[in-house]
Specification:
alpha+beta; Ribosomal Protein S5, domain 2; 7 helices; six-stranded mixed β-sheet
Length: about 325
């Protein structure tokens, strides 16, 4: 992900000492404190979302752009009644000098995070793919979400999952008419756009793990890091992220349904820790889901310029 980002031993020790004292490099006073989330929906467009994580001083730490597009394609032979869904994540020079432009490969962070969020949505049936079918075996909708990193200081996975779900909820695809297998696509001026079948809202949360003992001390005392307690940190900055010794990713919705667990190596954790992380994640997911729904509701009220007049007229009749 980061290119030639060097952290000196002094800076490394300083950051770890801050974490050991429940303080953060950006001024946060708790290891579990997250940065402020802003969701901005582009006017006059569907499924075009900007998201920001802001520091305590109001400056932008991480900024993403999520955009949904749709096109008609031939379905997969194994699933003739289902549409297709794809997420494309891109890091580039816009995100900062520590990032490089390169093609997405199977080992890149873009590919890893994109597939992680994609599987979170597909395996939990958050998006109804059968609703995307136009003509079985011939034509279906392909829904694509492009995630572009504009500024980056950590917190990508959470922000990208929030952005993807917000964009899918907000998006409207063109309506179509089918006659004798001939498909006519209607513009938004002819017919109102059709909402995607979003059945629930899963959101990913990443718990970052740091050892309480430095590696040199572990080697010196001839003890295993598995026997040492770990620090659990939410919403790491970029430099904190580079110093972590493991992570645990959980995706769930406000209905208390766990849809994905991922532990890609690093510090081992017990089953009781997984239960503890699940309970810690739930109120965060509920609050974030409410923010998503509120942002979409505000945007819909702005788009419906006659809503207030109709409401006032109905109130008169009720009286």
């Amino acid at each position: 992900m980061a290119k030639d980002l060097v952290i000196t031993n002094t800076e490394r020790q300083f950051i770890l000492d801050l974490l050991a004292n429940s303080q953060r490099l950006d001024g946060r006073k708790s290891l579990l404190q997250q940065r402020d989330l802003n969701i901005n929906i582009t006017p006059n467009r569907y499924g075009d979302i900007y998201l920001e994580l802001k520091r305590d001083d109001g400056s932008i730490a991480t900024r993403l752009h999520c955009k949904v597009t749709a096109e008609i394609v031939k379905p997969k032979d194994q699933r003739p009644f289902e549409g297709t869904f794809y997420i494309n994540c891109e890091f580039n020079g816009l995100a900062g000098l520590n990032f490089e432009n390169y093609k997405v490969g199977n080992n890149s962070d873009e590919f890893y995070y994109g597939r992680l969020i994609e599987s979170m949505i597909l395996r939990s049936n958050a998006l109804d793919l059968e609703q995307l079918c136009i003509v079985a075996g011939l034509k279906v909708w392909n829904i694509r979400v492009d995630v572009h990193v504009l500024e980056f200081d950590g917190g990508f996975l959470e922000l990208a999952s929030i952005g993807c779900m917000t964009a899918l909820l907000h998006y409207r695809r063109p309506d179509v008419t089918v006659r004798n297998e001939k498909v006519t696509i209607h513009s938004f001026d002819e017919k109102e756009g059709v909402k995607l079948g979003v059945l629930h809202i899963p959101i990913a949360l990443q718990f970052n793990l740091f050892p309480l003992k430095e590696a040199a001390e572990i080697i010196k005392t001839n003890t295993s890091s598995e026997n040492n307690n770990e620090l659990v940190v939410l919403d790491c900055t970029l430099k904190e992220d580079l110093l972590k010794d493991g992570e645990f990713i959980i995706a769930l919705n406000k209905n208390r349904e766990i849809v994905q667990l991922n532990k890609p190596g690093g510090i081992p954790i017990s089953a009781s820790k997984i239960v503890e992380f699940s309970h810690m994640a739930l109120p965060i997911i509920e609050e974030t889901t409410n923010k998503i729904l509120k942002a979409i509701d505000i945007d819909e009220k702005k788009r419906n310029k006659y809503a207030h007049l109709l409401s006032a007229e109905n109130d008169r009749y009720v009286e």
